[in-house]
Design a protein that fits this description.
alpha+beta; two-stranded parallel sheet; 5 strands; globular; DNA-binding
DNA sequence: TAAGTGCGTCGTT
DNA sequence: AACGACGCACTTA
């Protein structure tokens, strides 16, 4: 796991031969586990990681992420990959409801299952599951903690559009 | 308005 | 068969 140091804590990124396959939010208690020594990391992955780092920093700073690193979403089912792919098309600073995302992904009735797919997203922040909110402009849930969802949305200046509380 | 109930719907375990 | 990061209709206070 390679660290990404930010004002908001240390994110951890993991890579496969395909690309970025997992991104974890800062964990309060855990001191950075295996910071794999950089010399062991293939140069290709180093380059991907620089990109990942840059994207995370930008989003946290309230700016669009720019070019994403290659993403390895192979851990998901076909359904989940379809939802994640649709999520990637939500522009920075905008939000969609679970129902709208279900529609966009061609599964208009799978609204509830879409919530499950969001929760199974292995690459939060870059695959913007935080831009998926409940109907009636309510915020909805977030498995990594609502505080993160609120933080990300506020950095994207989208929070004011949501219903308070 | 706010809070609570019930049910449809469907992918995942 | 049971369980959701849902949505909608509807009832009560």
């Amino acid at each position: 796991m390679l660290p990404i140091r930010t004002e908001d804590g240390v994110f951890l990124a993991r890579y496969s031969v395909e690309g970025l396959c997992e991104l974890k939010f800062p964990q309060p208690g855990k001191s950075s586990p295996e910071s794999t020594s950089p010399s062991d990391v293939p140069s290709e992955i180093c380059q991907w990681h620089e990109r990942t780092d840059q994207c995370v920093q930008k989003i946290l700073a309230g700016k669009p992420p720019g070019k994403l690193p290659p993403l390895d979403l192979s851990s998901g089912t076909d359904f989940q990959r379809g939802i994640w792919k649709a999520m990637l098309e939500i522009p920075f600073g905008e939000v969609l409801s679970y129902a709208q995302l279900a529609l966009k992904a061609g599964k208009p009735a799978a609204v509830r299952a879409v919530g499950g797919a969001c929760g199974a997203n292995p690459i939060p922040v870059l695959v913007p599951c935080h831009r998926v909110v409940a109907a009636n402009r309510r915020i909805g849930g977030f498995s990594s903690g609502l505080k993160w969802k609120r933080l990300l949305l506020s950095r994207e200046a989208s929070l004011f559009r949501l219903q308070p509380a």
